Amino acid sequence: MVCRCIRYLLCVYVARVTRYAKNASAVFSLKFHLVWCPKYRRPVLEGAVADRLKALLQNTANEFSLTIHTLEIMPDHVHIFIECDPTFSVSEITNRLKGHTSRVLREEFPSLRSRLPTLWSRSYFAGSVGQVSEATVRRYIESQKGK
Q1: Mean pLDDT, rounded, of the chain
Q2: What does 14-72 look like in DSSP terms, one character per residue?
Q3: What residue ranges define each of the domains in the chain, with the CATH number in brackets?
Q4: What are the pLDDT digits (tens) for 14-40?
């Protein structure tokens, strides 16, 4: 009987730990699907630019304690499924990711400076995972690569 109780409590604890994150003052699960495009939706995110963009997004996410669950880079847009702390707003996260990657990519790839006045358009899409299940968002992002 005691063993079953301990096993049950352990299962409940593990479910809570994997489903939610916590900081000093909150327990949370904030996951967003973000999409943004290069200026004029130009197909410039290919080859070395796409590889470098992926590395920059991972580094920036680590710097701000963000978790990237899924990331796909198409020639003319970026899909990212990200989890964040409630101390950051969605616009702050998006602006940090876009701002840092734009500056570094335009320094490293001069062709981006000559083809575009800025790397990213000002707009973006942000959707929370609350209305659509997490699995659906993951499948959608992963299926985009084949299109």
Answers
A1: 86
A2: HHHHHH-EE-SS-EE-EEEEEEE-BGGG-----THHHHHHHHHHHHHHHHTT-EEEEEE
A3: 26-146 (3.30.70.1290)
A4: 444 456 777 778 887 889 999 999 999
